[in-house]
Amino acid sequence: MALITTSAPEYRDALPEGGVLIGLDVGSKTIGTAFCDAGWSFASPADLIVRSKFARDKTRLEAAIASRPTAGIVIGLPINMDSSESPRSQSSRAFARNIADLGLPILLWDERWSTAAAERFMIEADLSRAKRAERIDSAAAAHILQGAIDALTS
Question: Between vectors from CA 74 to CA 68 and to CA 78, what angle results, nearest 5°?
Fold first, then answer.
């Protein structure tokens, strides 16, 4: 069973040398994905997984992970503004437990403001409302992953 933690230092210590990280914004209808470069400098949005049965979602996630030399997983953890957890937080924790058998260390990362930040960036880039809707979850995953790699490399 892989490590599941909210501690960046503990996660960093569990990671092997080299490899990229995958970031996930897990929602009830979609899973936004993002990858960082091997130097952990920048995160970029990747594919969107449209949720269906968990087994199918996991297979698509495994394919994404297999497409790159992936060392670890960062999952957005929805935390309330008062730092308390909600049913959505518990759903993200359950998702992490359900994919722990992939054997990669998992970091649960505070995702407050990730969707808002991604939306603001896309508005500044003058993307249409339709294009924003299509890309928001993967952009939020990139924002989550960027926050995590910034913490891991500082």
Answer: 145
Question: Which one has a higher pLDDT value, 7 or 18?
Answer: 7
Quick one: DSSP state of residue 83?
S
Rg (CA), the chain: 14
Provide the terminal-to-terminal Cα distance of the chain, rounded to the nearest Å.
Answer: 28
How far is it, in rounded angstroms, from Cα 145 to Cα 107? Answer: 10
Please check the confidence at residue 139 and state whether its pLDDT lies above 90. Answer: no
- Residues 136 and 81: their CA atoms lie apart, in Å, by 21
Region of 18 on the Ramachandran plot (φ > 0 left; ψ -120 to 50 alpha; else beta)? left
Could you read off the pLDDT of 46-87 as tens digits, one per residue? 999 999 999 999 999 999 999 999 999 999 998 877 888 888
Alpha carbon separation from 31 to 18, 45, 133 (Å, rounded): 25, 12, 13
Q: Are strands 20-26 and 70-77 parallel, antiparallel or unpaired?
A: parallel
CA angle 148, 151, 153 (to 5 degrees): 110
CATH number at residue 84: 3.30.420.140
Q: Please tell me the pTM assigned to this model.
A: 0.87
Count of domains observed in the chain: 1
